[in-house]
Write a structure and sequence with these properties.
Layout (H helix, E strand, L loop, with lengths): L7 H27 L2 H14 L3 H17 L3 H15 L6 H9 L1 H20 L5 H12 L15
Helix pairs in contact: 1-4, 1-6, 2-6, 2-7, 3-6, 3-7, 4-6, 5-6, 6-7
Length: 156
């Protein structure tokens, strides 16, 4: 279990986990900023392909959130979630996301769900089993294959 009284090795491990997650989230954020309308469509297609088991997806989502809270990282996740929201759906939405939202709202909402799930998976990756991480990022991995390098886009 997580302890605030952990030794130097535990503190270093936690710092490394946070740093890796932050770097991966920055990469995800940067990729979402330049995602083309075709990339948004591909993420939406991925959502349709990979959400066949919505119950299992929600199980992975709950597990990730529980792991984040147990590690005391809830406020950090909330900050990333709000940042992502403002970039894909809020008043300051990125141009491609905003344009696609006006033209093809249903598939943009699916791509948004895929983006949020991927961010959650990346944030919690070191704290959850890989199968749950895979379930959370698989839809967005159709547009951003680096999220699941062991899986070719379009396969599953």
């Amino acid at each position: 279990m997580h302890s605030d009284q952990g030794g130097p090795a535990d503190q270093t491990t936690e710092a490394n986990i946070r740093a890796l997650a932050r770097a991966q989230l920055e990469r995800l954020d940067a990729d979402l900023r330049v995602l083309s309308p075709l990339g948004i469509e591909r993420a939406a297609w991925g959502w349709d392909r990979h959400d066949a088991s919505l119950e299992a997806f929600h199980e992975s989502e709950r597990l990730a959130l529980k792991a984040i809270e147990a590690a005391g990282e809830g406020p950090g996740w909330d900050e990333w979630r709000q940042r992502l929201f403002s970039e894909v759906e809020g008043r300051q939405a990125l141009i491609a996301w905003h344009a696609e939202h006006r033209a093809h709202a249903p598939h943009v909402h699916k791509a948004e769900r895929a983006a949020f799930a991927a961010a959650l998976g990346v944030f919690a990756e070191a704290r959850i089993p890989h199968g749950h991480y895979r379930r959370l990022v698989s839809a967005m991995a159709e547009a951003l294959p680096w999220l699941l390098p062991e899986q070719q886009p379009g396969s599953h």
